[in-house]
Design a protein that fits this description.
The protein is α/β, with parallel strands linked by helices. The chain has 9 helices and 12 strands. The strands form 2 sheets. The chain has a 7-stranded mixed sheet with strand order 9-10-8-7-6-11-12, sandwiched between helices. A 5-stranded mixed sheet has the order 3-2-1-4-5, with helices on both faces. β7 and β8 form a beta hairpin.
Length: about 325
């Protein structure tokens, strides 16, 4: 964990030693507070509501729910005199740190973040959602801050292999179409699970002993791959099994095994091509106990260093955004 020195920026506010973080992603409203030593003092998250049987939310619906959720989360985060100690507000303002990256849901975080900062008369900083994901895991990891590393960002809408060199982030691999998270969520909804279905699917994969042999290999193109064919085949196979009254747990296990095999193959190839042996995982799919456990076991005796960090911070949260705000303010 990094430590920061209080800079002259906050000298006028001697008692202000906290940073408020806000993240408004596709499916979760998040607020966090961190101290000047990087300690997490508050980590609040509220999952957005998705109707049973549906596979996601419209941006307008998600934005409306963020606006409804944020006042209460901010009230909780700033209770007990915390507001008077806030030195800066950080918020996610776009999906990725590239020109043209945009999603309406982040307008909620931008608006609330800037409004709170103005009311408290403190600076505000905007970052990308992806940068927040990376920082949430990296800050508490053993990865050196000044050396490049590979990072998987695996979430409901993102499936990218990144080359991270300090503040520079480059996509070098990943899915060309849908993400691992989308495949898993759609499979779960197909079986009647609530969206997002990742945690329930993961529990089934963990407890299931046998893996079916019904799915084709994921097609690769260097460090990139396609997943839409896997999703279609899994869906059709599941439909046939349900109609025949057959179990689907082994099919869920095979789906996770296909994802696992793809990650192993791409990781080994990427390490060879880049000569980088440090690989970090972040995003909701990275919190899968089945996938992370199998990856740790596979690479246990290899020269590659696999870092999952605190997996409770892999899913959407505002901790990484708050930590980035602290770095910006105090470094």
């Amino acid at each position: 964990m990094e430590f920061w020195e209080i800079s002259s920026i906050t000298a006028m506010h001697k008692n202000r030693d906290l940073v408020l973080g806000i993240d408004t992603s596709n499916y979760k409203t998040s607020v966090a507070v961190i101290g000047s030593e990087g300690k997490i003092l508050c980590d609040l998250r509220k999952l957005l509501k998705v109707k049973q049987g549906e596979r996601g939310l419209r941006q307008s619906d998600a934005l409306f729910q963020h606006i409804e959720n944020m006042p209460y989360l901010l009230e909780c985060a700033l209770a007990g005199g915390q507001a008077s100690r806030i030195a800066a507000v950080a918020y996610s303002q776009r999906p990725r740190p590239v020109e043209g990256s945009y999603m309406p849901v982040f307008k909620a975080g931008i608006s609330f973040g800037q409004a709170v900062a103005t009311a408290l008369q403190v600076p505000s900083f905007g970052f990308s959602h992806q940068e927040g994901h990376i920082e949430a895991i990296r800050a508490g990891s053993e990865l050196p801050a000044n050396r490049p590393f590979l990072c998987y960002h695996l979430s409901g809408g993102t499936c990218e292999l990144l080359l991270v060199n300090q503040d520079q982030i480059q996509i070098i691999g990943g899915s060309k179409d849908i993400s691992f998270g989308q495949v898993i969520d759609r499979a779960g909804v197909k079986l009647g699970m609530a969206f997002p279905a990742g945690e329930e699917m993961d529990r089934i994969a963990m407890k299931t002993q046998d893996s079916s042999q019904a799915l084709k290999k994921i097609p690769y193109d260097g460090l990139f791959f396609n997943l839409s064919g896997l999703e279609t085949q899994w869906s059709r196979t599941a439909e046939n099994r349900i109609k025949a009254g057959e179990e689907t747990d082994s099919l869920i296990r095979e789906l996770f095994d296909k994802i696992l095999k793809a990650l192993i193959q791409i990781t080994e190839q990427a390490a060879k091509e880049t000569s980088i042996n440090s690989i970090m995982f972040t995003g909701g799919v990275s919190s899968s106990r089945y996938i992370s456990g199998k990856l740790k076991t596979h690479f246990e005796n290899s020269p590659l260093f696999i870092e999952f960090g605190d997996q409770s911070l892999s899913q959407d949260n505002a901790v990484g955004i708050a930590l980035l705000g602290g770095r910006k303010l105090w470094r």
